[in-house]
Amino acid sequence: MDAEIIAIGSELLTPYRQDTNSLYLTERLNHVGVEVRFKDVVGDRREDLVSIAKNAIARADIVIFMGGLGPTEDDLTRECVAHALGVELHRDAEIVAWLRARFASRHMSMPDNNLRQADVIDGALVLPNAKGTAPGQWIEKRIGASQKILMLLPGPPWELKAMFEEQCVPRLRTSVPPQVIATRLLKIALMPESQCDALVAPIYKRHTEVETTILAARGEIQLHLRSRAATQDEAEARVQVLADELLAELGDFVFTVGNDTLEKVVGNLLQQRGATIAVAESCTGGLLSQRITMVSGSSAYFLGGAVVYSNGLKTVLAGVPAELIASHGAVSREVAAALAQGIRDRCGAKIGIGITGIAGPSGATPEKPVGLVFHSIADARGTDVLERTFPGDRERVRLWASQQALDMLRRRLMHS
Amino acid sequence: MDAEIIAIGSELLTPYRQDTNSLYLTERLNHVGVEVRFKDVVGDRREDLVSIAKNAIARADIVIFMGGLGPTEDDLTRECVAHALGVELHRDAEIVAWLRARFASRHMSMPDNNLRQADVIDGALVLPNAKGTAPGQWIEKRIGASQKILMLLPGPPWELKAMFEEQCVPRLRTSVPPQVIATRLLKIALMPESQCDALVAPIYKRHTEVETTILAARGEIQLHLRSRAATQDEAEARVQVLADELLAELGDFVFTVGNDTLEKVVGNLLQQRGATIAVAESCTGGLLSQRITMVSGSSAYFLGGAVVYSNGLKTVLAGVPAELIASHGAVSREVAAALAQGIRDRCGAKIGIGITGIAGPSGATPEKPVGLVFHSIADARGTDVLERTFPGDRERVRLWASQQALDMLRRRLMHS
């Protein structure tokens, strides 16, 4: 079965607010075997809400409306869904009594507007709201050849989550054919998306029983595998077979099967090897250190480092000879190697990392374009330098440079 | 005129990813006088994308499609929009040549898949992509009685923003009836949202002709003011009067009236004062340096710094006496001051900043809880230390500590 999730409220159409309830709902729906096929956001305008509701009811098995259940004139969800279904609303005496009691217990008089919250769509089941005044509604209705489920839920996240978890999930389990879902996530660093797709598409296309999604962002590609089957064993076996084939093709380009970040994977390898690191970074300006120390427990292997933005500090903090900078330039293979060696010595670390490059937008020369970065690793075995030219703006160059340094370190650790 | 924004990609229907481009687009559309009326998310499924496209073209004046312009089989936006419009695609020779040249310049061979990116909807104008391989498309078409504008934009935010800003906004301005909107943005660091609201609500509620939105995130509160009027002068006057009243109430808690980041504001002050800084950070692990160097041109005032995670490095890189650490502990007022003084001396900077604290989740003692951070600034006038205990997890503590150090520096520079 598939679902459409509709968030209602004009504030969700401003630059400042965003629906996030749908992420929670998607996770819970997937878990009971329901896929989300559409998400929409619509304002508090009658004709728009009716039009969205009609489309959704026509195309999805399950339609979830969020918000617009309050007491004000702007709260139109009840009447618009009734209109889209072609049925009437009736005022529910029990809800009226409950609302009056709630106000009375707070020694407040109830504005007449609040009676709107007692309007129930004919045929709907009322979902009491443990956290607020807006009750939800659950509707099961045969439309044409298919049985539809509609839910009207309140917008505030704590009200919605409590209601969905306690009242909707159990009902969904009885309505949705029991299904199990198995997932796998493979992460790959620094490969162009088209290159990755060319490698993996011939493989995952043979596995039509597994749904594969490729996601590329921030110097990383994620391959999300997902399969549904009648039993957990069968679903697990399907994603495992595909994951194994993808791993055989991609080899050590895959830095994890799971949800770990690259910095976490590198941290685990450092701990397994009993290694310590220190970092001397120029163009990344602290980003590499910051990523390494995002990982809780990183003090076990990260000693620290230097952000050597000025040439003077490359010498003072990382011991790079001033003559070397003068003869090769600060952005050079030689200075990258000297940064890695120098910070390793200075900090007494097993491994030193050096980064120097041109993040832009200024600082480029004809020989040294924006995006040119030298990455270096020094350890007891020697010093390696990797030269890359990254496209994109300052933020992207810095991110990719930090990504490249981490991945270079990962490979070095894997083969040591 | 009104707009519908459609985000395309199955990953946006998972619990893991969310469209955020629409927030940026909404801000820019509002600015030229266009309101957003619907937002939708749809996966990479042909029939769904065609259905959404048809609905949107029928009901909105402007339809923006984001994503699905890549080279893979999943990238269906071009063909589905063509189908919804009832027109054909043609392969554009210029784009093919451009794609081939782009790959050749990187010494890579182009997979055949990439040719799909040269498919153009009949009647569309090609929008070159300065930041990636997927060109956008701009379509103006009379449908029934109304003139519609359609845009196909790439999904990655940096590509979308560059293309929309440079190529779409100017075109929109010629098509949309001129309207005037005046806006002001006030940013406040480190104040609790409820405290801010208690101060400002009595003021902005008197100004019903200005729409005020309060937003709190990442150690910062934003007050967005917006007013429309018949003339620019009138709209500007309305927001200016309210902004002035808010500034009078909030004083130097407001770090900018505009869209600058706190690190940019601090950078401007450093440049105006002709000052240089160096940083020695422990619990923030490079985050402060990284934020300062996010600002293009920061090399004019940022010399560099040390990430002194281990106690040994606090001595080696920032010259903190080992006895001081032994007697007061690494997380102490004394060590924070010594970090600021030491890194200032070592780097020859006018201002030194030191941060030491417990980001958690481990490392706390009964006297020193998770979230305890000491921030210090040293300059020719002396050394100040500020102690704070931040609530929240590791990421939040680190962020707030970097925020506090920047705001402390801002106040010091303003009063120097």
What does this structure look like?
- The structure is a homodimer of 416-residue chains.
- Chain A has 416 residues and is of the alpha/beta class.
- Chain A is 40% helix and 27% strand.
- Chain A has 13 helices and 17 strands.
- In chain A, helix 1 packs parallel to helix 5 and helix 2 crosses helix 3 (77-85).
- The model of chain A has no long low-confidence stretch (mean pLDDT 94).
- Chains A and B meet through helix 1, strand 2, helix 2, helix 6 and strand 10 of A and helix 1, strand 2, helix 2, helix 9 and strand 14 of B.
- Strand 2 of chain A pairs antiparallel with strand 2 of chain B.
The low-confidence parts of chain A are none
Cα shape of chain A: elongated
Please identify the structural class of chain A as seen in this structure: alpha/beta
Number of helices of chain A: 13
Strand order of the largest sheet of chain A: 2-1-3-8-7-6
Strand content of chain A: 25-35%
The biggest chain-chain interface is: A-B, 83 and 86 residues
If you compute it from the alpha carbons, what radius of gyration of chain A comes out, rounded to the nearest whole angstrom? 29 Å
User: Largest beta sheet of chain A, briefly?
Assistant: 6 strands, mixed
The helix content of chain A is 25-40%
The whole-number mean of residue pLDDT values of chain A reads 94
Instruction: Give the topology string of chain A: H per helix, E per strand.
Output: EHEHEHEHEEEEHEHEEHEHEHEHHHEEEH
Q: Please, what is the oligomeric state?
A: homodimer
Measured between the Cα atoms of the first and last residue of chain A, the distance is 49 Å
Work out the number of β strands of chain A.
Answer: 17
